[in-house]
Amino acid sequence: MRHFAVMGEGGDVMYVFSGADNPYIGSDVTTVEITKDQAKRIEGEDAALIVDGEVIINTKRDVKKHELNAIRFASGSIDGAVIKRDDVATSLTVDGKHWMNNGRHAVLQLASQYFDATGDVLVGGLGLGIVPLLIATKSNVRSVTVVESDDRVIELFAKQSFDKAKIKVLHGDVLNASGDFDVVLVDHYNKSNSLKDDISHYHETMAAKINSNVFNFYLWEEIAGDTYEEFLDFAKHHDANTYSEDEWCRFKSNKSDSLEELNEAIDRINSQISVPDKLSKERLETMCQDAESAARSLSIGAPPGDRKLHRDYGMYRCGDGEYLAIGLTWGDNGRMFSVKYQGGEITDYYEIYSSGEYFSSELDMKTMEPVAHYAEGGNTKIDAITGETMQANYRCKGLDGLPVEFVDRLINDGFPHIDDIFYYAEKPYGDCVEFGLSDIFYGRGK
């Protein structure tokens, strides 16, 4: 795990984040790689500077570690427009140019647009669709109309499995839009050499044809070239309702309550991803009941009738669209046992150890003698006779540590339990994941 600081002007630290890699390489965002100790020192302090690699604490602004979930976009491409996932975030590139990603920094920059949105909203530019998806989750937003100039981007968004009932996407130039809207949100890369000229052009052009109470402009490229004070001075000479002061420095996005609300909105979006009937909780419940019946019907090693069977884990093979297996555990006279139910029958029987050389052993279902051992917390399967490694399982925690290719396939499958995954493995019969059932059936933390 590496640690990075996102930098503002003069060495100000905007926030810190951790990841396997830096998603902002090649972008306009200035980042500095820092040590774990430096990251800990910055987090929770009032503010910080990084000067010549040294962290200096000051009081210029709040600096906290921002934790944001990611909207789970599925990858895809259409004629040079590409949505692609990497180890940190999902990005949109068009004709080889990186436009945006769904990483923490990008979502934080959009925070004030989310908080400004109410009623009927016009959005200029679609991108990945983060802004329209976020604001459509708000109960006080009636409709979201998006104007996007690239029909390939529109088609990529149309392929995403989210609830778009409030969202209407039009092909065209937002400067030609007209009508009545409560809020207008424009988030563009501007093309001239002056932020002030661009805001004036957008405001004058759109205000002539659109009746709206709030115009929120965020024109990226030139913002870094003007000071915050200059931006506010310019804004004061226009309609007081036209500009959100937070748009320049994203102060709202530094508030913990704002982060919590954004996380809740993102969770609502991710919950909209279409889940196939064969991956429903009802199907999982039926499979667990069948597994419990099969376990109690074993001629050898059946759990005692008075023992409750714990629904421990499920298995899924990428691309299947239905659950592969169920794991049950129970205790008996101070020992712990487990079975795997797959294809309508109990296929594997295990003993789990509380101490000793191995985490668990797979037992022959007739002799109850070990045929394989699992070491390192269950990561590696070892032949009990030869000692050779038979299979490697890899630990992960939801998206954290799960390979990109697995994540993408699971999202495209509509797999609903990504956050509960704790193992992945490339097995002879396919790429598989194991996910915990405790939170699904018993509630978090049990």
Report on the structure:
This protein is α+β, with helices and mostly antiparallel strands and 446 residues long. It folds into three domains: 2-58, no CATH class; 76-270, Rossmann fold, CATH 3.40.50; 277-442, no CATH class. Helix content is 25%, strand content 33%. It has helices at 36-42, 104-109, 111-116, 130-136, 151-158, 195-207, 220-223, 228-236, 246-249, 256-270, 281-296, 404-413, 438-442, and strands at residues 2-7, 13-19, 31-34, 47-51, 54-58, 76-78, 81-85, 90-94, 97-101, 119-124, 141-148, 167-171, 179-180, 183-188, 210-211, 214-219, 310-317, 323-332, 335-342, 345-352, 360-363, 370-375, 380-383, 389-392, 394-395, 421-427, 430-436. An eleven-stranded antiparallel beta sheet has the order 24-23-22-21-20-19-18-17-27-26-25. Strands 12-11-10-14-16 form a five-stranded parallel beta sheet, with helices on both faces. Strands 6-7-8-9 form a four-stranded antiparallel beta sheet, with helices on one face. β6 and β7 (81-85) form a beta hairpin. The longest helix is centred in the middle third of the chain and has 16 residues, at 281-296. It starts with a strand and ends with a helix. 34% of the residues are buried. The model is unreliable at 57-67 and 220-256 (pLDDT under 50).
